[in-house]
Amino acid sequence: MMQTDFLVIGSGIAGLTYALKAAQRCPDRKITVITKTVEDETNTKYAQGGVAVVNDLAHDSFKKHIEDTLIAGDGLCNEKIVEIVVKEGPQRVQEIIDLGAEFDKNPEGDFSLGREGGHSENRVIHYKDVTGKEIERALLAAIHKQKNIELITHCYVVDIITQHHLGYLVTKSTTDIECYGVYALNEHTNRIEKILSHITLLATGGNGQVYRTTTNPVVATGDGVAMVYRAKGRIENMEFIQFHPTALPPQYSSPAGGKKGGGQAFLISEAVRGDGAILRNEEGEAFMEKYDERRDLAPRDVVARAIDSEMKRAGTENVYLDCTQMDLEKFKHHFPNIYEKCKSIGIDIHKEMIPVAPAAHYSCGGIKTDEWGRSSIRRLYACGECASTGLHGANRLASNSLLEAMIFAHRCFEDGCKVIQHQEAFKEIPDWNAEGTTEPKEMILITQSLKELQQVMSDYVGIVRSNVRLERAMRRLDMLHEETEGLYERTAPSPQLCQLRNLITVGYLIVKGASFRKESRGLHFNTNYPYKSKLVQNIIL
């Protein structure tokens, strides 16, 4: 058993920012960060575009950034939260700069500001095309200097501990659910251990692996959302899954992905279109003007649906991103990672167009939180992609995600520091009960179910949906759920089995939310309800 003051689950920008602030404010407190693989394997690491923040007040304003966010969110943003994030943004970004994170500057010494879809002004600060990786580097360097932070790798959280584990009946109607810590599988010892904490923060990232093709790494399995749902906490707006319009299809991203027909797709940053790249269809036509007056810089939901429409019309697996008219040296400086990737697969971006297609990218819904990052479960906070703060509404504005993580990591930390002053004694929590289980003997049962899940979600719950597709998806998920729960009850938990279980739960929540929403709004488009409803509401599960 381990006891700690602040428990942080996840080592991306949200979790590390929170841990660092807690360690500095409370030097006599113990902060424990656990991550299920190596310390830097997070969605943050793969964020290319940058951080949207009002920096140039001569040309930009908080009002414009707020309006752009609300327009992208298509009526479902919490305006109070949007204002908080936009106005607190500059201070939080300055803190990450003070830690040593670098951002590109122009010859005059000012930040080089990019522009992405949905933004009315250039306001995206970036470090080449590896912004997230640079922020992750700076945070980890600072974390390792703090003596009261323990970072544990290869430690997989199985479940949140609540009154349920003390023998009490906990339901959705229970108003005083409390979090006492977690049960976690320590892969160093291959044992499930208790980690008790006064304050727990979920910063577990996204759930892109529920789809066959995603820009997310393999760790993005929706663990936080699934655990909170099982613990009877509130989840909202899971139907709003953002598909990034421009990713290299898996057959170009990696040989393995091409053979399997899915996998992690290499992201082609929206900033490339912000710098002048043009989307073209199979006939070479610049098609975006047919769909939106903002053309290639329309919000992501609009662009993804337009590309999907062009692909289905022509019967092709991709469209093209034309960068041939762009300044080559400028491209190589701003997008060195993208340039090298294209070069490695034989594409000369100065002469040839880049094949692109939408890929699952970001979950706008998640664990419902308030303005201080508090979930519906006491002493349990959530921030980053696993949380639904109210910022994104029905569609996230490009490059608002890293900003949101910084803002709410700070707010969770501020509230948690107040709560911990009135800490209670640790409860007597029973050890994990593995009685009656055996080691799994056939991994094929897990891997095949994962393939089936990803196929179902991609085919029936993708960019465009219908009632028939959603009904069919739910029937398939019910079967997968029943089989996987049986396997979970009979065998000892493994990361692979737990992740499958979590992804099935996330898939169920996406389908359920999509089925409840009898309209098309933002990232959710249902051919049976092609128009917005007059009734705007969040769907809480």
What does the model show?
The longest helix is centred in the C-terminal third of the chain and has 24 residues, at 467-490. Strands 1, 2, 5, 6, 7, 8 and 18 form a 7-stranded mixed β-sheet that branches. Strands 13-11-16-15-14 form a 5-stranded antiparallel β-sheet. A 3-stranded mixed β-sheet has the order 10-17-19, covered by helices on one side. The protein has 3 domains: 2-240 and 364-422, FAD/NAD(P)-binding domain; 246-353, Succinate dehydrogenase/fumarate reductase flavoprotein, catalytic domain (Flavocytochrome C3, Chain A, domain 1); 444-526, Fumarate reductase/succinate dehydrogenase flavoprotein-like, C-terminal domain (Methane Monooxygenase Hydroxylase, Chain G, domain 1). With 541 residues, it is α/β, with parallel strands linked by helices. The two termini are 33 Å apart. Mean pLDDT is 93; it is low at 255-261. Helix 1 runs parallel beside helix 12 (401-419), helix 13 (444-460) runs antiparallel to helix 14 and helix 14 packs antiparallel against helix 15 (495-516). It is built from 15 helices and 21 strands. The protein is globular, with a radius of gyration of 22 Å. Strand 7 and strand 8 (191-202) form a beta hairpin.
Give keywords.
5-stranded antiparallel sheet; single chain; 15 helices; alpha/beta; FAD/NAD(P)-binding domain; 541 residues; Methane Monooxygenase Hydroxylase, Chain G, domain 1; 3 domains; Flavocytochrome C3, Chain A, domain 1; 21 strands
